[in-house]
Amino acid sequence: MLPIISDADLGHPSAPGEYPFGGATVRVDNFHIAAWQRAPSTAFGAILCTRAGDTALRFALGQNSVKPR
After folding, report:
1. How far from chain centre, in Å, is Cα 14?
2. Long-range contacts at 27-30 (CB < 8 A, ≥ 24 apart)
């Protein structure tokens, strides 16, 4: 099961970029920053972005918010 991630899970990022999440990294876009500024409790489902043969676990955030935990 893929994680649901909030801004608190990533240390309240204020700019797009890659942020640590457990043993993985999560890509955050301007869209997510704007959503968190409007509604800090917003959470997004993660999308697995790890490529075959890559040993690093990478996620991106989806575009649809989900019910906060």
Report:
1. 13
2. 27/58, 27/59, 27/60, 27/61, 28/61, 29/60, 29/61
Mind listing the pLDDT tens digit for each residue in 31-52? 999 999 999 999 999 999 988 8
Residue with tokens 């893929």: 2
Q: What is the pTM of this model?
A: 0.86
Q: What are phi and psi of 8, to 5 degrees?
A: -65, -35
The closest of 39, 47, 53, 42 to 21, measured between CA atoms, is: 47
Q: Which residue has the tokens 């999308």?
A: 47
Length of the chain: 69
Question: Which amino acid, one-letter code, is at 24?
Answer: A
Phi and psi torsions of 54, nearest 5°: -85, 130
CA max distance for the chain: 38
